[in-house]
Amino acid sequence: MTADGQAAAPEARPPQPGGAGFGTFAGVFTPSILTILGVVMYLLLPKVTGQAGLGGTLIIVAVAHVISFATGLSVASIATNRTVGAGGAYFMISRSLGAPAGAAIGIPLFFAQALSVTFYIVGFTHALMPLLPASAAWTAPWISTGVNILLTGISLKSADLAIKTQYIVMAAIAVSLVSFFGGTSEEFYHAPEWFNPEGPAFGEVFAVFFPAVTGIMAGVSMSGDLEDSKTAIPKGTLWAIFVGFLVYMAFPVWLSLNYGNERLVSDSEAVWSIARWSSLIYAGVFGATLSSALGSILTAPRTLQALAMDSLAPRLFARGVGPANEPRNGTLLTFALAQAGIFLGSLDAIAPVLTMFFLATYGFTNLACGLQKWSGNPSFRPTFVVHFIISLGGAAACFYVMSIINLGAMVGAIVVCGLFWFITERRDLETTYGDARHGIWSAIVRYALQRLRRSAWHPMNWRPNLIIFGGDPDKRPHLLRLGDAIVQDRGIVTYFHLLTGDVADHAPERKELLEVFDPLMQTQYPNVFYRVDIVPDVFAGATQIAQSYGVGSFEANSVMAGWPSKSDRLEAYLGMCRDLAHLDRSLLLVRNTDEGPVERAESIHVWWGGLEGNGGLMLLLAFLLKADRTWRSADVKVMTVVNEESEEAQARRNLQLLLETARLDAEPRVIRREGRAIADIMAEQSGGASLAILGFRLPDEGMEVVFHERMTEMLERLPTTLLVHSARSFEGEPVLFDEVERQTLSDASSEEVPLGRDDGV
Hints:
single chain, alpha/beta, two-stranded antiparallel sheet, 12 strands, elongated, disordered C terminus
């Protein structure tokens, strides 16, 4: 059982390597630092330093590493809360924000990791070509293919062999750094130029450098192969960030001491010129590109394997080989994708989108940590504690960096991630990982309720928070359909199924009803919440529920029920209605005549008696219904009755003014009484309508039977009818009209010919 009260699914992840997992240095620090100290350092950092100046570059490096450090802290916090299984970043996001969020990041992340192999291998080939004869230019794709086969073969042999190979690469990078810092140019010592006022904008230069610090997930993605991920991931990730920060702070200082800004911008081989042994720089470049490619070949299949174990990718890729459960099927797919990229040639068009996927991963990792900490999720108890402001700030910074690097690519990445999220959400996976979504939504609801309590309520802010007392949903589906159509996304509707008797006797039945109907409600009526309550008496229980259901100042304001077809217990039913009215709950009583669901409603007739009382709520209900798909094309007619012909013109003008002021698309209709009974007029005018809406007054005690007989006789001649009794706190009109409009209508309705009484019947 999770902290949110949900049944937890077993952890779906490949088995951990039996006793032979990698430690902090081999499994996390090495792949991370080799990805961080990459091509940007050798080929792009000199140009960045020249464009921004030494001071500007140090600021860029510091800001980039603040973001990287915040992400590293979030990774450390999540890793010390629970064991990070195979999949690294995907595992952390899916177990924190749910399967849809995990799929939205994990699937694009796999393709980004796989296609990153292409970029690193092609980068290696480009660095190699100047050392070959010019006639060998045509061999570049085949050289890249050979490197791809070699690195994939190393990875297929075993992850252990790949990690040992990376030791050699790290040694090559180390000696290249010794060569660089051990050499000087002919201009040494050159006075540092701190800023370059003629250089590009800060954001443009920052975007060029930032990919250098996006390698911290390389070690995290090896989580399934670690001996102790709770220890290795925090230590290895943070140490890699720290070492990378020191190197990237020192590198531009040495560049500026040797060359001026203009030379650094124009000379792409400045690093070679400064180095004591320039050949060792080639070793570093080759090592940086090959190690990054090898790291991606290792991490991409493991991300895919974790997705497959969670049924978010074909199960074929979930199977592993050997005691370490190595994902060979995923490795072969990674090879195929990388090879396709090599033969497609330039991938410059999608390169920014791939960068966006990496940044989105870091952003969502920060978000996962920050939201869990902010929401106070009891199950989130990391031993490495990070304040939620740091994590949420890191998330915001990641998304900001995405926007300044390439706004179009950011939009494209968001669309792709959103598509995967939507598809996964629609699949409605039944497993839960004890993720933080429930806790996060609970925290948001708690915060909103606290804010709502401090906000003064005004009738203009009225929303229908509706309770439906309908018993068995299969017997009264018309209440569900009408209640859902009225409320939609403008309020809350809760359907109560009341069981009468003792709790002990009906508890099993209650549980069974919830298990059957709650999923159906979520599917057929997503705006409706379904509850089953056990009460000693149905009418007294309904009254208690209506006055107690809600939290704080957020409570039900309207009650819907069916019109009683029988006169037994009529006194108790109308007594309940009177109690609900005393509690300031508006009453919506439905007398249904439709045999089945209405596919398309033709007309709504509102029987209007005046501005005071029930009129405002009746008009509002017609307005709300018109927003529903079933009722969207229905014609609304507002009907009123006058006694004399002399009253007709004034009544029509008043109705027209009313509808214009209420912004309700409806037809005003004035009928002369001519000695006929109101019930006969209603039957004649509204007999063929889809719905009639009319107000009513509750009878005095002792008049229940007479009231019921008179109303039933009238309703039998009408279509499906919604009887409305407005709560006193509703005040009707402010929901539709402001104070100036209300005064205008009051003046109009108080002229020589009044609109009439608003008792409706």
